[in-house]
Specification:
14 helices, membrane, transmembrane, ABC-2_transporter-like
């Protein structure tokens, strides 16, 4: 069964990519619009830095590294989860999710890979370019260890992002409605473009525990650059590395629990 899944997954991805690339001009124009949109956000941060020089003790190149890390981790994680799990609510409401349950295939795997969102290409291009500039511009001496930590923390942040989105989407199997939770998710996500230490203690605690999106941005980047990390302190580095795998396990457990609670279109 595992080998069957592994053979089918590339086919699902290829079919979806072909459908999205049918109108290539429109696709790349949309990606350009995304780059300009997120570029304007970063430009706004630049305007603040031009006036105040630092933000919470972070310089312009350091904030560029933070922004690019946050955007890249989100883009990679959301490409494997966001649109697919956001549509799960409608599948449950209309009863069409039931058709996935009779397929000889994992419903989660089918949802994720048949709807792999290549639309995040614009996010990834901008984040990668900005990250390349920030890595070269930041006042930091890179080593094999720091580079390894940076890559591992990025993988962990990607896993954490996908896990949180999966848990939100899976809640539709219990409540039918779950997309309102994405508004809460993105409300906190937008805060993580900035250093954690500029927020009040209550928000800092939420961003590390209940909605741990700080672990996808300022906590790992701050730990790398030697910045003081609120609440976590010296634990910031190991927590950044294990957060992703731990939340993936929690997402798996939540998905199984939600699947067990699902009663079908009839309620």
């Amino acid at each position: 069964m595992l080998m069957h899944h592994l053979r089918v997954l590339p086919l699902l991805v290829r079919m979806h990519v072909r459908s999205k690339m049918e109108y290539r001009g429109a696709f790349w124009l949309d990606r350009l619009a995304q780059i300009l949109s997120y570029g304007s956000v970063f430009a706004t941060i630049g305007i603040l830095l031009a006036r105040f020089e630092t933000l919470g003790g972070w310089t312009w190149p350091e904030l560029a590294l933070l922004f690019s890390f946050q955007l890249l981790a989100y883009s990679l994680g959301a490409a494997m989860s966001f649109v697919q799990l956001r549509e799960l609510e409608e599948l449950v409401r209309l009863g069409t999710y039931d058709t996935l349950l009779v397929k000889p295939f994992s419903p989660w795997a089918y949802l994720v890979f048949s709807g792999l969102n290549i639309g995040y290409a614009g996010h990834i291009i901008l984040a990668a370019a900005l990250m390349a500039w920030a890595v070269l511009s930041v006042d930091f001496v890179w080593s094999v260890w720091s580079a390894s930590f940076f890559i591992a923390a990025l993988v962990s942040a990607t896993l954490l992002t996908g896990a949180l989105i999966t848990m939100i989407g899976a809640t539709a199997l219990i409540w039918v409605r779950s997309n309102h939770l994405f508004s809460i998710f993105f409300g906190f996500w937008e805060l993580t473009r900035y250093p954690l230490n500029i927020f009040p203690g209550g928000i800092q605690l939420i961003l590390i525990t209940a909605v741990p999106l700080a672990l996808t941005s300022s906590v790992p980047v701050g730990a790398l650059l030697g910045k003081p990390i609120p609440i976590l302190g010296g634990w910031a580095e190991p927590v950044s590395l294990v957060a992703g795998p731990i939340w993936v396990l929690m997402a798996i457990a939540h998905w199984r629990y939600a699947t067990g609670k699902y009663q079908g279109a009839g309620g």
